[in-house]
Amino acid sequence: MDAKSEVLSRYNAKVFKSRKDHILRLSRSEGGSAEIAANSRAVPGIMTNRGCCYAGCKGVVVGPIRDAVTITHGPIGCGFYSWGTRRNKARAGEDGKNFIQYCFSTDMQEADIVFGGDKKLRQAIREAVEIFHPKTVFICSTCPVGLIGDDIHAVAAEAEKEFGITCAAFSCEGYKGVSQSGGHHIANNGLMKRIIGSNDTPPDAKFAINLLGEYNIGGDGWEVERILKRIGYKIVSIFTGNGSIEEISRSHLAGLNLVQCHRSINYVAEMMKSAYGMDWLKVNFIGMDAICGSLRDMAEYFDDGALKLRTEEVIAEELAAVAEDMAFFRSRLEGKTAALFVGGSRSHHYQSLLRDLGVRTVLAGYEFAHRDDYEGREVIPDIKEDADNKNIEQLEVERDPKRYRVFLSPERYAELKGRMELESYAGMIRDMPDGSYVVDDLNHFETEAFTALLRPDIFFSGIKDKYVLQKGGTLSRQLHSYDYSGPYAGFRGAVLFGRDLVMGLQAPAWRLVTPPWKRQPAETAAQGDATHA
Amino acid sequence: MLDLTPKSVSERSALRINPCKTCQPVGALYAALGVHRCMPHSHGSQGCVSYHRTFLTRHFKEPAIAASSSFTEGASVFGGGPNLRAAIKNIFDIYNPDVIAVHTTCLSETIGDDLNSYILDMSIPDDKVVVYTNTPSYVGSHVTGYANMLSGFIRCLADSRAAKNGGTAVFPGFVNPGDIREIKRMLALSGLSAIVFPDQSDVMDAPMTNTYVMYPRGGTRLDDIRALGGCGRVLALGGFACAEPADVLDKKCKVPYLVLPLPIGVAATDSFVAAAAEVAGRPVPVELEEERGRLLDLMLDANPYFYNKKVAVYGDPDTVIGLSSFILELGMRPGYVITGTPGEEFVRRVEALLRDYDVENCTVKAAADLFELHQWIKNEPVDLLLGTSYGKQIAKAEDIPLVRAGFPVLDRYGHSYLPIVGYQGAIRLAKMIADALMDRQDRDCADEDLDVVM
Asked: Among A35, A66, B51, B174, which is most exposed with the fewest C-beta within 10 angstroms?
């Protein structure tokens, strides 16, 4: 029995039925299917790792924008939990505005639930404006707000008039959709409707790009920025790590959109294509091959001789600078195995870096992905809509006649599309060998069961699993927060990642867990030798 | 750091900035983890429990298990009954706990889901139990949720017909496993055998063994919760967290209770130790009296370093009252004492302490937040911050030493193993405070003033 059957065999009939299509053992060479069920309801009672729509909207996409006051409209918890816990780093720009260190909430009380919370929200915006003088205020709603029918969009419109600010509301109640994913989409729609394209100051640079789906966790965005600047790119905006309204408002004037986290931001990329004609390119700045490939694709897109030359120079220099460290860490990690369970794209991206370090991935899964993140965007037309997804607005974007530009000739576009992931994404599964497992919405039970069966040396996951795995003797590294380390992106990040894995695997405490009086005789002898060596 | 916080304080009636509390369900979840073989369950959308498990795991550096009803929009419109039914079946099938402790969320409360009727309608395996409580997130704070979960267990399980056993129960309050361990040690030294409810020791500080156990050895046994009904008395430590559940038990099973402050510092620990001795019918054991003596020795030895230092104390009400009491005993001066949890009883209690020590010019506020605390500090600084991790921003912004105590401590390790309660806990607290102040003195002094002996 393979691991999939063994894990599923422990479920009752209903759970078995819900889960069986979310687990895949890759066997394409034997004609096995590579289709996976995703983005559907979690099973009640099963300990899923998923969060909610609010977490996706406020926590992931909107929250990292540094110069907007983002007010959580609801009881205190949601705002509190999304305060300072995601490591989306930010530094104030010239205007000195950095609200990332703050938590703003309407802290709704029982009377607000009974009589409506819009009055309190209005007053909260007034107080925020008077104390902080922000140019932009965002409102993110939580579960009860939608249920009691507070019209946060009307309040936002009033606030714009009264205070002369931009005020955008996001109806991202936690119960919408099936995971954080719906919240990403709602945030994307809001940014597209209200912020993108609202400032026509040109970037004044030849190779101007936006970096989409980079949240600057542990400073990832800054490391990517360092590399791109060396080559000669102008970064107009980053969505949304250390992002600012000023930058995002003029992002439509860049020459190319780079998409790092496909799941959380592909909607903006697609909508900007429709409205402004901007192309987008799927990139990955995690792992040597992936970074080099992405940089070469970018240079090829802009098709400039000097840029291509500079790209190769920078690649050569950067690779040389980290070669020795990478070789050392590889020598320590070669032959190890890993499992990855992260959110949107990291489970895919990090496989590239793990390969650089000689680590083989035996299982990978996403917390809130859709089928296209696994199987590639070409399956999008085949994805069946269900009731849970239908209630997330699918924003229809029309061509902006004044701002629409054509970037490539149809011939060149077709040529490039065959050579790189231009407006396409092949998904994670294609990079994984037969025999490995893909699990969507991996839960607590399956984490334990697969770990027991596949025995990975390292399990990359989040904080909720971390100590489950560690207590069981498996090294667990958080790939959401990088365990308070990072950056892991870019060339320098790769070295830090390698160092952190070696550090984790070599912690002397692992060998001390079993007390000497409980060790097998051979083990005791070995330990004794090591101690007295 | 916090560069946008203005010095001038303005009146706010609607905007909460940098809160000093969170919502009820996480307290309920933590309380339920103190019951042996219990699976906490959050009746709401899955984001709530994801946040709560994350929060608790970050504080304890331990797995914090809990399941969710995983509401979708449909369930929010038509009610969460089917979700709860499916969840209960799946939890028993897959995770096999002895008890599931259900709490609500603002979502299920707003739509008015009736847990009682849902659960009555369910088929629950004969040897299993489902208990429940209401924890609307828009009332009180996480401390309220903790109290409500204890009340829920008592309402569902405490047996009013249980044989009167004359025993004692101790509700240890919203504290760390290390504190509960210390409370149990003091009870054992006092010769008092008591039911401790809840008891997160050996659950949220389970040892590393290379084997993950979903239900570690600790936690109050269900039979002990049932037997609460037959107890002769309850010692409830911390009025905010434990008075209400003690009262529920009294009303249901006629068990009288005594609310004591959380035993933080000398006087509060004295009350606890004296009460335990009285119940046990024995004198206070010599070991505890000697520990007390060592604590007093330390307090006198290091007195010059504590004297008149101004402190801002913030966090949960019972903890903050205890910490305030202890810093007064150390000869320090509370400058600001706040909690995010609403309730004017907090203010009355702290002001009574301040009167005992003739301290004036101290701002005491319930339902306060860390933004206003920071603003006050900008106007009138303090020498020390004493509270949770969220004070670290203020500490950095204003260059003030911070000693971490209470919930949550997300940015340090080992704190949950070690007590702040009892004489031993006070020795630890006094040492942490003295170290922080003396390190600061060493750092700030001129070279010629650096004393090797202090």
From this structure: A35
Task: Considering only the beta carbons, identify the residue of B45, B87, B139 that sits closest to A175.
Answer: B45
Whether residue B121 is found in the same domain as residue B54: yes
- The CA distances from residue A258 to A231, A284, B395, in Å, are 15, 9, 39
What's the rounded Cα separation, in Å, for the pair B173 and A397?
55
- Which pTM does this prediction carry? 0.97
Tens digits of per-residue pLDDT, B100-137?
A: 999 999 999 999 999 999 999 999 999 999 999 999 99
Q: Dump pLDDT digits (tens) for B357-380.
A: 999 999 999 999 999 999 999 999
Considering CB atoms only, which of A76, A126, A465 is closest to B23? A76
CA distance B34 to B286: 31
Q: In the block, which residue shows the tokens 């006051």?
A: A69
Contact A101 B50 (CB under 8 A): no
Which domains does chain A carry? 53-176 (3.40.50.1980)
Give yes or no: residues B434 and B306 share one domain: yes
Which chain A positions have a beta carbon within 8 Å of B15's beta carbon? 71, 104-106, 123-124, 127-128, 131
Question: Is 60 exceeded by the pLDDT of residue A531?
Answer: no
Cα distance between residue B213 and residue B219, in whole Å: 13
Q: How much of chain B, in percent, has pLDDT values that exceed 90? A: 99
Q: Does B147 share its domain with B262? A: no
Q: Is the pLDDT of residue A272 over 80?
A: yes
For residue B86, pLDDT beyond 70: yes
Compare all CA atoms of chain B with the CA of A51 and give the residue at the minimum distance.
B47
Calculate mean pLDDT across residues A359-388: 96
What is the DSSP secondary-structure string of A3-39?
HHHHHHTTS-HHHHHHHGGGEEE--GGGT-------S
In a domain, B9, yes or no: no
The verdict on B273 and B381 lying in the same domain is no
Q: Which of B51, B106, B206 sits opposite A143 (nearest CB)?
A: B106
Do B323 and B433 belong to one domain? yes
Do residues B134 and B83 share a domain?
A: yes
pLDDT of A530 strictly over 50:
no
B73 vs A: CB within 8 A: yes
Does B34 fall in a domain? yes
Same structural domain, B185 and B118: no
Q: Does residue A394 have a pLDDT over 60?
A: yes
For residues A105 and B106, what is the distance between their CA atoms, to the nearest angstrom?
A: 15
H or E stretch at B104 = strand B99-104
Asked if residue B5 is part of any domain, the answer here is no
DSSP states of B270-290: HHHHHHHHHHHTSPPPHHHHH
Q: Which residues of A are catalytic?
A: 52, 55, 86, 184
* Helices A288-302, A410-419: inter-axial angle, 10-degree rounding: 170
CB contact under 8 A, B89 and A514: no
* B153 and B174 together in one domain: no
pLDDT in tens, A368-382: 999 999 999 999 999
Cis peptide, bond prior to residue B408, ω within 30 of zero: yes
In a mutational test of the B interface, the residue from A107, A130, A483 whose CB has the highest number of chain B CBs within 10 Å is: A107
With CA atoms as reference, the chain B residue closest to A447 would be: B212
**Least Cα separation, residue B66 to chain A (angstroms):** 7
Residue B311 lies in a domain: yes
The reported pLDDT for the residue numbered A62 is 98
Tally of domains in chain B: 3
CATH number at residue B283: 3.40.50.1980
Q: What is the pLDDT of residues B289-324, one digit of tens each?
A: 999 999 999 999 999 999 999 999 999 999 999 999
Domain that holds residue B358: 302-449
Instruction: State how far residue A306 is from chain B, nearest Cα, in angstroms.
Output: 42
